[in-house]
Amino acid sequence: MRFNALRVFTEGLTGNRRWRSHWRKPDPKPEYDMLIIGGGGHGLATAYYLAKNHGITNIAVLEKGYLGGGSIGRNTTIVRANYFLPGNSEFYSHSLKLWEGLETDLNYNIMHSQRGLINLFHSDGQRDAAARRGNAMLAQGDDAILLDREEVREILPYLDYDQARFPVYGGLYHKRGGTARHDAVAWGYARGADQRGVDLIENCEVTGISVDAGRVTGVTTTRGQIRARKVGIVTAGRTSQVAAMAGLRLPIESHILQAFVTEGLKPCLDHVVTFGMGHFYISQSDKGGLVFGGDLDFYASYAARGNLPGVEQVTEAGMTLMPMIGRAKVLRSWGGIMDMTPDGSPIIDRTPIDGLYLDAGWCYGGFKAVPASGWCMAHLMATDQPHPVAGRFRLDRFATGELLDEEGTGSQHNLH
Ligand SMILES: Cc1cc2nc3c(=O)[nH]c(=O)nc-3n(C[C@H](O)[C@H](O)[C@H](O)COP(=O)(O)OP(=O)(O)OC[C@H]3O[C@@H](n4cnc5c(N)ncnc54)[C@H](O)[C@@H]3O)c2cc1C
User: Fold this and answer.
1) What is the tens place of the pLDDT at every residue in 345-390?
2) How much distance in Å is there from the Cα of 239 to the middle of ligand 1?
3) Is 168 helix (H, G, I), strand (E, B) or coil?
4) What is the pLDDT of residue 380?
5) Distance 315 CA to ligand 1 centre (A)
6) Which of 364, 368, 393 to mutate to test the pocket of ligand 1 (most atoms within 8 A of CB)?
7) Which of 63, 125, 138, 306 has its CA 20 to 30 A from that of 18?
8) Residue 4 pLDDT greater than 60, yes or no
Protein backbone atom coordinates (compact mmCIF):
# COMPACT_ATOMS: atom_id res chain seq x y z
CA MET A 1 0.00 0.00 0.00
CA ARG A 2 1.51 3.31 -1.10
CA PHE A 3 0.36 6.65 0.22
CA ASN A 4 -0.27 9.47 -2.21
CA ALA A 5 -2.59 12.44 -2.52
CA LEU A 6 -4.97 10.68 -4.92
CA ARG A 7 -5.28 7.74 -2.54
CA VAL A 8 -6.07 10.00 0.44
CA PHE A 9 -8.63 11.87 -1.65
CA THR A 10 -10.32 8.70 -2.94
CA GLU A 11 -10.43 7.07 0.49
CA GLY A 12 -11.92 10.24 1.91
CA LEU A 13 -14.73 10.06 -0.64
CA THR A 14 -15.38 6.34 -0.15
CA GLY A 15 -15.53 6.07 3.64
CA ASN A 16 -11.87 5.23 4.36
CA ARG A 17 -12.63 1.51 4.07
CA ARG A 18 -9.58 0.19 2.22
CA TRP A 19 -6.76 1.29 4.48
CA ARG A 20 -4.79 -1.70 5.81
CA SER A 21 -2.68 -2.22 8.93
CA HIS A 22 0.75 -0.72 8.48
CA TRP A 23 2.53 -3.91 9.49
CA ARG A 24 1.75 -7.61 9.98
CA LYS A 25 1.54 -9.32 13.38
CA PRO A 26 3.60 -12.47 12.76
CA ASP A 27 4.43 -15.15 15.33
CA PRO A 28 8.15 -15.56 15.95
CA LYS A 29 9.96 -18.20 13.89
CA PRO A 30 12.42 -20.51 15.70
CA GLU A 31 15.39 -19.02 13.85
CA TYR A 32 16.41 -15.82 12.02
CA ASP A 33 19.64 -14.56 10.50
CA MET A 34 19.56 -11.54 12.82
CA LEU A 35 17.56 -10.36 15.79
CA ILE A 36 17.10 -6.78 16.94
CA ILE A 37 16.09 -6.42 20.58
CA GLY A 38 13.98 -3.27 20.98
CA GLY A 39 11.29 -1.83 18.73
CA GLY A 40 12.02 1.86 19.35
CA GLY A 41 13.26 4.30 16.74
CA HIS A 42 16.78 2.92 16.62
CA GLY A 43 15.78 -0.77 16.48
CA LEU A 44 13.21 -0.22 13.74
CA ALA A 45 15.58 1.97 11.71
CA THR A 46 18.30 -0.68 12.04
CA ALA A 47 15.95 -3.36 10.72
CA TYR A 48 14.79 -1.09 7.90
CA TYR A 49 18.32 -0.29 6.69
CA LEU A 50 19.48 -3.91 7.08
CA ALA A 51 16.73 -4.82 4.64
CA LYS A 52 16.99 -1.81 2.36
CA ASN A 53 20.74 -1.19 2.22
CA HIS A 54 22.06 -4.71 2.72
CA GLY A 55 19.28 -6.99 1.45
CA ILE A 56 19.12 -8.86 4.77
CA THR A 57 15.45 -9.57 5.40
CA ASN A 58 15.36 -12.71 7.53
CA ILE A 59 15.28 -10.52 10.63
CA ALA A 60 12.98 -10.09 13.60
CA VAL A 61 12.58 -7.04 15.82
CA LEU A 62 11.61 -8.19 19.31
CA GLU A 63 9.67 -5.61 21.31
CA LYS A 64 8.49 -6.24 24.83
CA GLY A 65 5.57 -3.81 24.58
CA TYR A 66 4.12 -2.15 21.50
CA LEU A 67 6.10 -0.47 18.72
CA GLY A 68 6.79 3.13 19.55
CA GLY A 69 5.83 2.88 23.24
CA GLY A 70 9.32 3.75 24.52
CA SER A 71 11.21 7.02 24.32
CA ILE A 72 10.66 7.25 20.57
CA GLY A 73 7.06 8.20 21.38
CA ARG A 74 7.90 10.30 24.45
CA ASN A 75 10.48 12.83 23.31
CA THR A 76 10.17 16.53 22.53
CA THR A 77 10.82 15.80 18.83
CA ILE A 78 13.79 18.11 18.24
CA VAL A 79 15.93 17.35 15.20
CA ARG A 80 19.23 19.19 14.69
CA ALA A 81 22.83 18.87 13.52
CA ASN A 82 24.66 21.34 15.74
CA TYR A 83 27.25 19.16 17.44
CA PHE A 84 30.74 20.41 18.01
CA LEU A 85 33.24 17.59 18.34
CA PRO A 86 34.65 15.55 15.44
CA GLY A 87 33.00 12.18 15.81
CA ASN A 88 29.61 13.58 16.74
CA SER A 89 29.59 16.37 14.18
CA GLU A 90 29.75 14.20 11.06
CA PHE A 91 27.35 11.65 12.52
CA TYR A 92 24.56 14.15 13.26
CA SER A 93 25.22 15.90 9.96
CA HIS A 94 24.67 12.57 8.19
CA SER A 95 21.53 12.05 10.24
CA LEU A 96 20.04 15.41 9.27
CA LYS A 97 20.64 14.67 5.60
CA LEU A 98 18.76 11.39 6.01
CA TRP A 99 15.92 13.23 7.80
CA GLU A 100 15.65 15.58 4.84
CA GLY A 101 14.82 12.70 2.49
CA LEU A 102 13.03 10.46 4.96
CA GLU A 103 9.40 11.13 4.07
CA THR A 104 10.07 10.30 0.43
CA ASP A 105 12.19 7.31 1.33
CA LEU A 106 9.60 5.85 3.71
CA ASN A 107 6.57 7.10 1.74
CA TYR A 108 5.26 8.24 5.09
CA ASN A 109 4.28 11.60 6.52
CA ILE A 110 6.52 12.07 9.54
CA MET A 111 5.70 15.80 9.66
CA HIS A 112 9.36 16.80 9.46
CA SER A 113 9.35 20.55 9.93
CA GLN A 114 12.58 22.49 9.42
CA ARG A 115 11.31 25.51 11.29
CA GLY A 116 14.73 26.51 12.61
CA LEU A 117 16.34 26.13 16.01
CA ILE A 118 17.72 29.02 18.06
CA ASN A 119 20.10 28.33 20.94
CA LEU A 120 20.10 31.45 23.11
CA PHE A 121 23.19 32.74 24.87
CA HIS A 122 23.30 35.06 27.85
CA SER A 123 26.93 36.10 28.40
CA ASP A 124 30.09 36.98 26.45
CA GLY A 125 31.55 33.59 27.27
CA GLN A 126 28.48 31.82 25.92
CA ARG A 127 28.66 33.96 22.77
CA ASP A 128 32.24 32.80 22.18
CA ALA A 129 31.21 29.19 22.67
CA ALA A 130 28.24 29.65 20.30
CA ALA A 131 30.53 31.22 17.66
CA ARG A 132 32.93 28.30 17.92
CA ARG A 133 30.09 25.82 17.64
CA GLY A 134 28.66 27.69 14.66
CA ASN A 135 32.05 27.62 12.93
CA ALA A 136 32.30 23.87 13.56
CA MET A 137 28.84 23.41 12.06
CA LEU A 138 29.79 25.43 8.98
CA ALA A 139 33.05 23.50 8.63
CA GLN A 140 30.99 20.31 8.67
CA GLY A 141 28.88 21.67 5.80
CA ASP A 142 25.82 22.44 7.89
CA ASP A 143 24.23 25.83 8.50
CA ALA A 144 24.67 28.29 11.37
CA ILE A 145 24.03 32.02 11.83
CA LEU A 146 25.15 34.00 14.86
CA LEU A 147 22.38 36.45 15.81
CA ASP A 148 22.82 39.47 18.05
CA ARG A 149 20.28 40.52 20.66
CA GLU A 150 18.24 42.75 18.33
CA GLU A 151 18.11 40.10 15.63
CA VAL A 152 16.82 37.60 18.20
CA ARG A 153 14.26 40.13 19.43
CA GLU A 154 12.94 40.49 15.91
CA ILE A 155 12.48 36.75 15.47
CA LEU A 156 11.43 35.86 19.03
CA PRO A 157 9.56 38.92 20.32
CA TYR A 158 7.89 37.01 23.16
CA LEU A 159 11.04 36.46 25.24
CA ASP A 160 11.74 38.55 28.33
CA TYR A 161 14.34 41.11 27.17
CA ASP A 162 13.84 43.97 29.56
CA GLN A 163 13.54 42.55 33.05
CA ALA A 164 15.08 39.16 32.53
CA ARG A 165 17.22 37.59 35.21
CA PHE A 166 19.51 36.39 32.41
CA PRO A 167 19.60 39.00 29.62
CA VAL A 168 19.52 37.59 26.10
CA TYR A 169 22.82 38.41 24.36
CA GLY A 170 21.96 36.64 21.10
CA GLY A 171 21.41 33.22 19.60
CA LEU A 172 22.90 30.58 17.33
CA TYR A 173 20.37 30.03 14.56
CA HIS A 174 20.34 26.62 12.85
CA LYS A 175 17.78 27.00 10.08
CA ARG A 176 17.69 23.34 9.07
CA GLY A 177 16.91 22.27 12.64
CA GLY A 178 13.32 21.65 13.66
CA THR A 179 10.95 18.90 14.69
CA ALA A 180 9.28 15.74 13.40
CA ARG A 181 6.31 13.80 14.69
CA HIS A 182 8.04 11.24 16.89
CA ASP A 183 5.69 8.25 16.80
CA ALA A 184 5.17 8.61 13.05
CA VAL A 185 8.91 8.07 12.69
CA ALA A 186 8.57 4.72 14.46
CA TRP A 187 5.52 3.81 12.38
CA GLY A 188 7.19 4.83 9.12
CA TYR A 189 10.28 2.73 9.78
CA ALA A 190 8.12 -0.16 11.03
CA ARG A 191 6.03 -0.12 7.88
CA GLY A 192 9.09 0.13 5.66
CA ALA A 193 10.80 -2.79 7.41
CA ASP A 194 7.64 -4.91 7.34
CA GLN A 195 7.17 -4.27 3.63
CA ARG A 196 10.68 -5.64 3.06
CA GLY A 197 9.90 -8.85 4.97
CA VAL A 198 11.15 -8.05 8.49
CA ASP A 199 9.06 -9.66 11.27
CA LEU A 200 8.05 -7.10 13.89
CA ILE A 201 7.11 -9.06 17.00
CA GLU A 202 5.35 -7.09 19.70
CA ASN A 203 4.65 -8.23 23.27
CA CYS A 204 7.81 -10.32 23.10
CA GLU A 205 10.19 -9.53 25.93
CA VAL A 206 13.74 -10.84 25.74
CA THR A 207 14.52 -12.44 29.09
CA GLY A 208 17.85 -14.09 28.29
CA ILE A 209 20.70 -14.00 25.77
CA SER A 210 22.30 -17.35 24.93
CA VAL A 211 26.06 -17.41 24.54
CA ASP A 212 28.09 -20.50 23.68
CA ALA A 213 31.90 -20.45 23.67
CA GLY A 214 32.00 -16.67 23.42
CA ARG A 215 29.49 -16.50 20.56
CA VAL A 216 25.85 -15.47 20.69
CA THR A 217 23.42 -18.21 19.63
CA GLY A 218 20.03 -16.63 20.23
CA VAL A 219 17.67 -15.32 22.87
CA THR A 220 15.01 -16.50 25.29
CA THR A 221 11.77 -14.54 25.13
CA THR A 222 8.34 -14.57 26.70
CA ARG A 223 7.25 -16.16 23.38
CA GLY A 224 9.89 -18.89 23.32
CA GLN A 225 13.50 -19.46 22.27
CA ILE A 226 14.72 -17.86 19.06
CA ARG A 227 18.06 -18.73 17.46
CA ALA A 228 20.23 -16.27 15.53
CA ARG A 229 23.92 -15.80 14.76
CA LYS A 230 23.74 -12.05 15.16
CA VAL A 231 21.84 -10.11 17.80
CA GLY A 232 21.67 -6.34 18.25
CA ILE A 233 20.84 -4.78 21.60
CA VAL A 234 18.93 -1.59 20.79
CA THR A 235 16.96 -1.06 23.95
CA ALA A 236 17.84 2.55 24.91
CA GLY A 237 16.91 3.11 28.58
CA ARG A 238 16.89 -0.63 29.33
CA THR A 239 20.27 -1.31 27.74
CA SER A 240 22.17 -2.04 30.93
CA GLN A 241 19.55 -4.61 32.02
CA VAL A 242 19.50 -6.36 28.64
CA ALA A 243 23.29 -6.39 28.31
CA ALA A 244 23.52 -7.92 31.78
CA MET A 245 21.66 -10.94 30.34
CA ALA A 246 24.83 -11.64 28.37
CA GLY A 247 27.05 -10.94 31.37
CA LEU A 248 28.07 -7.47 30.15
CA ARG A 249 28.45 -4.48 32.46
CA LEU A 250 28.24 -1.24 30.49
CA PRO A 251 29.22 2.38 31.18
CA ILE A 252 25.57 3.39 31.03
CA GLU A 253 23.18 4.73 33.67
CA SER A 254 19.45 5.17 33.22
CA HIS A 255 17.76 8.42 34.23
CA ILE A 256 14.31 9.89 33.77
CA LEU A 257 13.65 12.84 31.49
CA GLN A 258 10.27 14.56 31.58
CA ALA A 259 8.33 16.42 28.91
CA PHE A 260 5.26 18.64 29.00
CA VAL A 261 2.55 19.81 26.62
CA THR A 262 0.08 22.62 27.11
CA GLU A 263 -3.45 23.11 25.82
CA GLY A 264 -3.62 24.03 22.13
CA LEU A 265 -2.86 27.69 21.43
CA LYS A 266 -2.93 29.78 18.29
CA PRO A 267 0.45 29.74 16.51
CA CYS A 268 2.81 31.86 18.59
CA LEU A 269 6.13 30.05 18.64
CA ASP A 270 7.49 29.43 15.17
CA HIS A 271 10.89 27.94 16.03
CA VAL A 272 12.53 25.57 18.42
CA VAL A 273 14.09 27.68 21.17
CA THR A 274 16.57 26.63 23.82
CA PHE A 275 17.50 28.56 26.94
CA GLY A 276 21.21 29.09 27.62
CA MET A 277 21.08 29.52 31.38
CA GLY A 278 19.29 26.35 32.30
CA HIS A 279 18.15 23.23 30.58
CA PHE A 280 14.93 24.21 28.81
CA TYR A 281 13.77 23.78 25.21
CA ILE A 282 10.42 24.51 23.62
CA SER A 283 8.51 24.31 20.35
CA GLN A 284 4.86 24.40 19.35
CA SER A 285 3.21 21.30 17.94
CA ASP A 286 1.06 21.37 14.83
CA LYS A 287 -1.98 20.91 17.11
CA GLY A 288 -0.99 24.10 18.95
CA GLY A 289 0.37 22.69 22.21
CA LEU A 290 3.61 24.13 23.55
CA VAL A 291 5.94 21.14 23.92
CA PHE A 292 8.82 21.59 26.32
CA GLY A 293 11.28 19.82 28.57
CA GLY A 294 14.29 20.31 30.78
CA ASP A 295 16.90 18.42 32.69
CA LEU A 296 17.30 14.84 33.82
CA ASP A 297 16.34 13.60 37.21
CA PHE A 298 19.82 12.82 38.49
CA TYR A 299 18.60 9.93 40.62
CA ALA A 300 19.21 6.85 38.46
CA SER A 301 16.01 4.91 37.78
CA TYR A 302 14.22 2.67 35.27
CA ALA A 303 10.81 4.14 36.14
CA ALA A 304 9.32 5.86 33.08
CA ARG A 305 7.40 8.44 35.07
CA GLY A 306 7.99 12.00 36.14
CA ASN A 307 8.08 13.74 39.49
CA LEU A 308 7.45 17.16 41.04
CA PRO A 309 11.10 18.34 41.26
CA GLY A 310 11.26 17.84 37.48
CA VAL A 311 8.12 19.94 37.07
CA GLU A 312 9.62 22.66 39.25
CA GLN A 313 12.91 22.85 37.33
CA VAL A 314 11.25 22.99 33.93
CA THR A 315 8.52 25.49 34.77
CA GLU A 316 10.98 27.76 36.57
CA ALA A 317 13.25 27.84 33.52
CA GLY A 318 10.28 28.39 31.20
CA MET A 319 8.95 31.29 33.26
CA THR A 320 12.41 32.87 33.44
CA LEU A 321 12.79 32.80 29.68
CA MET A 322 9.26 33.60 28.47
CA PRO A 323 6.87 34.73 31.17
CA MET A 324 3.94 34.37 28.75
CA ILE A 325 4.14 30.63 29.23
CA GLY A 326 2.67 31.08 32.73
CA ARG A 327 -0.72 31.76 31.15
CA ALA A 328 -0.89 28.41 29.34
CA LYS A 329 -2.38 25.37 31.06
CA VAL A 330 -0.25 22.23 31.05
CA LEU A 331 -2.31 19.34 29.70
CA ARG A 332 0.04 16.41 30.13
CA SER A 333 3.47 15.53 31.44
CA TRP A 334 5.29 12.24 31.06
CA GLY A 335 8.69 10.64 31.52
CA GLY A 336 11.04 8.46 29.49
CA ILE A 337 14.20 6.56 30.36
CA MET A 338 17.51 7.94 29.08
CA ASP A 339 20.55 5.72 28.52
CA MET A 340 23.28 8.08 29.73
CA THR A 341 26.97 7.49 29.02
CA PRO A 342 29.61 9.28 31.10
CA ASP A 343 30.76 11.42 28.14
CA GLY A 344 27.32 12.12 26.70
CA SER A 345 28.09 10.39 23.37
CA PRO A 346 26.66 7.13 22.04
CA ILE A 347 28.00 3.65 21.38
CA ILE A 348 27.53 1.75 18.10
CA ASP A 349 29.92 -1.15 18.31
CA ARG A 350 30.56 -4.85 18.61
CA THR A 351 30.70 -6.27 22.11
CA PRO A 352 33.30 -8.72 23.44
CA ILE A 353 30.80 -11.49 22.57
CA ASP A 354 30.94 -12.57 18.92
CA GLY A 355 27.75 -11.75 17.07
CA LEU A 356 26.41 -9.45 19.80
CA TYR A 357 26.20 -5.76 18.84
CA LEU A 358 25.33 -2.65 20.79
CA ASP A 359 23.56 0.55 19.82
CA ALA A 360 23.06 2.66 22.96
CA GLY A 361 24.04 5.65 25.06
CA TRP A 362 21.76 8.13 23.29
CA CYS A 363 21.35 10.34 26.32
CA TYR A 364 18.91 13.21 25.71
CA GLY A 365 19.55 13.30 22.02
CA GLY A 366 18.63 9.99 20.45
CA PHE A 367 15.59 11.09 18.47
CA LYS A 368 17.51 13.18 15.96
CA ALA A 369 20.01 10.34 15.72
CA VAL A 370 17.48 7.69 14.66
CA PRO A 371 18.15 7.67 10.89
CA ALA A 372 21.96 7.70 11.13
CA SER A 373 21.97 5.28 14.04
CA GLY A 374 19.87 2.77 12.12
CA TRP A 375 22.02 3.30 9.04
CA CYS A 376 25.30 2.77 10.92
CA MET A 377 24.11 -0.08 13.14
CA ALA A 378 22.82 -1.91 10.05
CA HIS A 379 26.20 -1.36 8.39
CA LEU A 380 28.00 -2.72 11.44
CA MET A 381 25.78 -5.79 11.77
CA ALA A 382 25.92 -6.55 8.06
CA THR A 383 29.64 -6.00 7.46
CA ASP A 384 31.21 -6.29 10.93
CA GLN A 385 32.90 -2.95 10.19
CA PRO A 386 31.98 0.39 11.77
CA HIS A 387 30.44 2.88 9.39
CA PRO A 388 32.87 5.80 8.81
CA VAL A 389 30.54 8.41 10.36
CA ALA A 390 30.14 6.33 13.53
CA GLY A 391 33.76 5.21 13.83
CA ARG A 392 34.32 7.08 17.10
CA PHE A 393 31.36 5.52 18.91
CA ARG A 394 33.45 2.71 20.32
CA LEU A 395 32.74 0.86 23.52
CA ASP A 396 36.42 0.64 24.45
CA ARG A 397 36.81 4.45 24.65
CA PHE A 398 35.80 4.20 28.30
CA ALA A 399 38.77 1.91 28.88
CA THR A 400 41.29 3.77 26.70
CA GLY A 401 40.19 7.23 27.85
CA GLU A 402 39.51 8.48 24.29
CA LEU A 403 36.24 10.03 25.35
CA LEU A 404 33.94 12.10 23.16
CA ASP A 405 33.00 14.59 25.82
CA GLU A 406 30.62 16.75 23.80
CA GLU A 407 29.27 18.80 26.66
CA GLY A 408 29.85 16.81 29.80
CA THR A 409 26.20 15.78 29.61
CA GLY A 410 26.86 12.24 30.73
CA SER A 411 25.21 10.40 33.52
CA GLN A 412 26.66 12.67 36.23
CA HIS A 413 26.80 15.93 34.33
CA ASN A 414 25.95 17.90 37.47
CA LEU A 415 29.35 16.79 38.75
CA HIS A 416 31.39 17.88 35.72
C1 LIG B 1 11.07 13.48 27.59
C2 LIG B 1 12.09 13.19 26.52
C3 LIG B 1 12.45 14.20 25.63
C4 LIG B 1 13.40 13.94 24.65
N5 LIG B 1 13.63 14.89 23.70
C6 LIG B 1 14.45 14.64 22.67
C7 LIG B 1 14.58 15.59 21.62
O8 LIG B 1 13.91 16.63 21.61
N9 LIG B 1 15.45 15.30 20.61
C10 LIG B 1 16.18 14.18 20.59
O11 LIG B 1 16.98 14.00 19.67
N12 LIG B 1 16.03 13.21 21.53
C13 LIG B 1 15.17 13.42 22.57
N14 LIG B 1 14.98 12.47 23.54
C15 LIG B 1 15.78 11.23 23.49
C16 LIG B 1 15.22 10.16 22.55
O17 LIG B 1 13.83 10.09 22.64
C18 LIG B 1 15.86 8.82 22.88
O19 LIG B 1 17.26 8.96 22.94
C20 LIG B 1 15.56 7.74 21.83
O21 LIG B 1 14.18 7.70 21.53
C22 LIG B 1 16.02 6.39 22.34
O23 LIG B 1 16.06 5.42 21.33
P24 LIG B 1 14.81 4.50 20.90
O25 LIG B 1 13.85 5.32 20.15
O26 LIG B 1 15.32 3.32 20.20
O27 LIG B 1 14.25 4.12 22.35
P28 LIG B 1 12.89 3.42 22.79
O29 LIG B 1 11.73 3.95 22.03
O30 LIG B 1 12.83 3.51 24.27
O31 LIG B 1 13.13 1.94 22.31
C32 LIG B 1 13.70 0.91 23.07
C33 LIG B 1 12.72 -0.23 23.06
O34 LIG B 1 13.32 -1.38 23.65
C35 LIG B 1 12.28 -2.11 24.26
N36 LIG B 1 12.85 -3.06 25.21
C37 LIG B 1 13.49 -2.80 26.37
N38 LIG B 1 13.85 -3.94 26.98
C39 LIG B 1 13.43 -4.96 26.18
C40 LIG B 1 13.49 -6.37 26.27
N41 LIG B 1 14.06 -6.97 27.32
N42 LIG B 1 12.95 -7.11 25.27
C43 LIG B 1 12.37 -6.51 24.20
N44 LIG B 1 12.26 -5.18 24.07
C45 LIG B 1 12.79 -4.40 25.04
C46 LIG B 1 11.44 -1.03 24.92
O47 LIG B 1 10.14 -1.49 25.24
C48 LIG B 1 11.45 0.07 23.87
O49 LIG B 1 10.33 0.04 23.03
C50 LIG B 1 14.03 12.67 24.55
C51 LIG B 1 13.64 11.67 25.43
C52 LIG B 1 12.67 11.90 26.40
C53 LIG B 1 12.23 10.80 27.32
Assistant:
1) 999 999 999 999 999 999 989 999 999 999 999 999 999 999 999 9
2) 10
3) coil
4) 98
5) 23
6) 364
7) 63
8) yes
